[in-house]
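Box 3.1 — From sequence to structure: NAD-dependent epimerase/dehydratase family protein
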Amino acid sequence: MKKIIVLGGGGFIGGHLAKRLKNEGNFVRICDIKNHEYFSHDEICDEFIKGDLTDPVLVAQVIDEGVDEVYQLAADMGGAGYIFTGENDANVMHNSAMINLNVAKESVVKKVKKVFYSSSACMYPEYNQLDPSNPNCEESSAYPANPDSEYGWEKLFSERLFLAFNRNYKLDVRVARFHNIFGPQGTWKDGKEKAPAAMCRKVAESEPGSKIEVWGDGQQTRSFLYVDECVEAVLRLMESDFLGPVNIGSEEMVTINQLAEMAIAISGKDITINNIEGQAFFDKYGFKCPTGVRGRNSDNRLYKEKIGWEVSEPLRDGMVKTFTWINQMVLENSYKI
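Predicted structure (token representation):
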């Protein structure tokens, strides 16, 4: 049995990861600024510490001697409406960087055997993601650096931070760049949800014959990875000798309109799409439409080469499970009103 700490285990990916690790018989301690909204503590950990990981004193208490693995997923982040408006840049950079600085230092002090850091595809250069049909997110394309958001810049800095601690202090690290992870038991409303959850919620809340709003022209492309496959990929990376950085994502690329159409088809409702952008968007929301880069798709060749495994679940399968869960959440919340 391993002693494992999941930082950010009160969040979406962290909660699923912690649950898997606990189910495999490990001792799991979680620290997060919030409780998990959909999993009970008993489901995902043996010990839950609620606190702010930007505090170095707390991190020193959470990471103690004898820890086998630390999974660092804690960050200040959200969907396009949170990351790309510019209104949260200072908090995103300060809070996430402070967490990572604390975790890296304390992991060395306490002689943690292995540390996983979750980076993001947002760190890739914007200039390689202007063509929605042919984005370049190969790991070697990261430099010259030019992320499209401050969130991406912080992720890039923290990658280098953990790898520097590996070089200078022999901290055994693994670094992965997540590409749009989605699934149930995650944020699905209030502005921090990612695109798959947003589409599922909009469709679930809509009546037949109505329209759902899709930000931008809908031709921007992305790939999305179901959370169970993400967890499997993380654990396989941790078992390997490869430090990374390496992509963890799906290579099944779709447009945002196609993603919305998929959610509509799964629902069985007669719903159409209303794309909103430009001046119409600004008049309604008061800020420029936050669509991110024009194209982004995971390049999994390095992961296949180094780990010998690849994701297999089609996007639609994950969307069916996600829509089913979010639809139930919408129904339950409507009953509460």
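Summary of the box: The mean pLDDT is 94.
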